[in-house]
Design goal:
Number of strands: 8
Radius of gyration: 31 Å
Helix content: 40-55%
Structural class: alpha/beta
Shape: elongated
Largest sheet: 8 strands, mixed
Strand content: 5-15%
Strand order of the largest sheet: 3-2-4-1-5-6-7-8
């Protein structure tokens, strides 16, 4: 081989290497593009298998359970019942916002049983506490009052302070009642908060309910009266009436709510339910709200919202024991299905398990 042919050989080798490299890159890119397409294809069964299971009541009440779980675990870890046992349990009940009166009542009964030697071990004590708390709640009717033969629409008034979730709860109740086969009209009686009317309009569109609104800042009673008359003329079963929700210490608000209650029943309808919406995170302040709203509007039931985000679920006991008002619905999340009928057995189980 002479020296003149060497450059030609090197050139041919370089070209061959370049072609080979381009081919490798092209093949690699095709493979890279193909991989995601293969990964996106999955059998239906596989997709269903990895779908997240819905949270249980126990899971949703994790924060409320934490108020008791530490004390319960500490008591069960002891070999005997002593003074520290009672102090820990009382502190845990108060942290859970059971309230001083209810906590003392619950523990007083247990102390008497321990003294009488009916209870001798920490495990028996916790079982007895659980049983006593359950007996405070079980047996109460939690049905929403609806009368079928009153010659006009049933009227459910929603009352409560701003921020408790009153308007949202009304919208969810409307959707649920429509799903049960009832016709619903919303009366936007919270005329002092423009967003309330907009919220109700959105819920009306979603659920298929009708709605009556008034002018911003107008008379709430007249809006609700018009809503009842409109419902009666259209043979609508249920009027859900939103109301103003400024601070409960505002005397004018309480007078206004008394007027709303009176005016609502001047037409063809009948007020069969007054639901007080309380934010569970407010704790004992919710008990004070319940007292004042009950005095003004004759509250028949409580809707306790945001229970899943609160460590103060014990307010249930304070409301029912001290005021005798049943907690009828509880909010355990953001969706319509997360506003559920309060189940005392599930609630107690979730607190202790």
């Amino acid at each position: 081989m002479n020296n003149s042919s060497l450059p030609m050989i090197f050139l041919l080798l370089a070209v061959a290497g370049l072609v080979f490299g381009i081919g490798v890159v092209a093949i690699s890119r095709r493979k890279a593009r193909a991989v995601p397409q293969i990964q996106r294809v999955a059998p239906v069964e596989a997709v269903e298998a990895v779908a997240a299971a819905p949270l249980s009541v126990r899971d949703r009440l994790a924060k409320a359970r934490s108020s008791l779980s530490g004390a319960v675990g500490s008591v069960l870890g002891r070999s005997e019942i002593n003074d520290s046992t009672w102090l820990e349990l009382e502190e845990a009940l108060l942290r859970a916002d059971v309230g001083v009166r209810v906590a003392q009542s619950l523990l007083g009964v247990l102390q008497a049983r321990v003294k009488a030697k009916e209870i001798s071990t920490p495990a028996q004590l916790i079982d007895a506490l659980r049983g006593n708390m359950s007996s405070q709640l079980v047996g109460t009717s939690r049905d929403l009052n609806f009368e079928a033969n009153i010659g006009g629409p049933n009227i459910w008034l929603m009352v409560g302070v701003n921020g408790a979730g009153k308007t949202t709860s009304l919208g969810k109740i409307a959707a649920q009642q429509i799903a049960l086969g009832r016709t619903v009209l919303m009366a936007a009686g919270d005329t002092f908060r423009a967003a309330a009317g907009e919220q109700l309009s959105t819920w009306a569109e979603r659920s298929g309910a009708q709605i009556v609104r008034g002018a911003e800042g107008g008379d709430p009673s007249s809006v609700i009266f018009d809503g009842v008359q409109s419902a009666h003329s259209r043979n609508i079963d249920l009027v859900l009436a939103d109301t103003a929700g400024r601070l409960q210490s505002n005397t004018n608000l309480m007078e206004e709510l008394r007027k709303v209650r009176r005016v609502a029943e001047k037409g063809a309808g009948k007020v069969t339910e007054v639901l007080l919406v309380i934010d569970a995170t407010t704790g004992q302040n919710g008990l004070q709200q319940a007292r004042q709203f009950t005095e003004a509007t004759q509250v028949t039931g409580v809707v306790l919202t945001k229970l899943d985000g609160s460590a103060k679920g014990g307010i249930v006991f304070a409301i029912e024991t001290e005021l005798g008002i049943p907690v009828k619905l509880v909010g355990l999340g953001e969706t319509i299905d997360d506003l559920v009928v309060f189940n005392p057995t599930e609630f107690i189980d979730a607190l202790f398990e």
